[in-house]
Amino acid sequence: MIQIEQTFMDFLLEHQERHKRSYHFLILMNSILNAAKRIQFYYSTGALRGNLGMTGSTNIQGEDVLHMDMIANELVKHSLARSGRVVHAIGEEEEEIIVMNEEGGRYFVYYDPMDGSSNVPHNLPIGLLFGVAKRALEGAEDMHLRAGREYIAAGMFVIPTGTFTIALHNAGCWRFHLDETFNFVKPTSMMLPISKKTWELSFNSSKRETYAPPVQKWIAENEKKYRFRYMGALAGDFHRILLNGGLFMYPAIVNHPDPRKNRPQGKLRLMYEAAVVAFMCREAGGGAVDENGKPILDIVPEKPHQRTALYIGSKPLVDEITKVLKEK
Ligand code: FDP
Fold first, then answer.
1. Among 132, 155, 177, 304, which residue has the least CB neighbours within 10 Å?
2. Structure pTM?
3. Sign of dihedral through CA atoms 297, 94, 100, 145?
4. How far apart are the first and last CA of the chain?
């Protein structure tokens, strides 16, 4: 007997039919899958094709742009536009909101085409992250700057590892694996483990002295209780937390010896990084807060590329750190 696994598209089709939903979302997801598979191809052959280096230019965030940043961004933008289902998109590499189909589109898509740039020269895991919100189909349009709580789906491909994790509103968080036929298959429901045995802490330890003193104190008191893992790519680090439990944090930088390098607003981007993983984490039974202990999913963005601090993972640890953050 051969083993025939359920594909992501079959899974989604059943989901849409069961909930009496339209096929528009399937078409949108198909376009994101196509982009992810193409990024997978360009990245896994990147060293051979000379695609792992810098372009020599900087992006709107003032960061050096890699060839792969550009390639991944073009692939996602092209696929989203082709789906015909996207009103506007916001992407890490694009300063302006990308206008797509204002007449007939149904969704707003927020995406980071290539998260974890420091891994690129090594061909180690990077991520394609996306969040989806739905246009107000009735009444006045409320613009595209939505809080994570309003997303209907959020997901992340870890490339070239070949895993795809997606959370659907009130329908759980699911992980798929890329098979030999280039299909994402075998849905596995992701729930953060209750047992502390596997829990991990994940943060840039070399920056700990730049964090707020109460955060430093919490780290000092708790770090010996858990394993420490840090990959330096949110997609990879969060991927581990989803399976093993624990806490990933990228706190605000408030005590840098060179005050110009402080980042009181945090480093990660709210709409296409923090809110995406926070949405997935909620569906997997976890939580996520910012530097003030406010739930990430409640933050209404004021601008597309807004940054935030992020504390995310198992509920008991997020609750513990929230208390510290609120009292500081
Ligand atoms: P990167 O700058 O390498 O693209 O989104 C930014 C991000 O990576 C996250 O993926 C990662 O968690 C974090 O920044 C790493 O930052 P540090 O190098 O400061 O640890």
1. 177
2. 0.95
3. positive
4. 60
Decide whether any atom of ligand 1 lies within 6 Å of the 204 Cβ: yes
For 232-280, write each residue's pLDDT tens digit: 999 999 999 999 999 999 999 999 999 999 999 999 999 999 999 999 9
Query: What residues contact residue 296 under an 8 Å CB cut-off, 6+ apart?
Result: 148, 270, 274, 275, 278, 288, 289, 290, 308, 310, 312
CA dist 27 and 276 (Å) reads 20
And the tokens for 307? 């940054």
Asked if residues 159 and 40 have their Cβ atoms less than 8 Å apart, the reply is yes
- The Cα–Cα gap between 91 and 77 comes to 8
53 Cα to the center of ligand 1, angstroms: 17
Instruction: Report whether residue 117 contacts ligand 1, using a CB cutoff of 6 Å.
Output: yes
CA-to-CA distance for 12 and 18, rounded, in angstroms?
A: 10
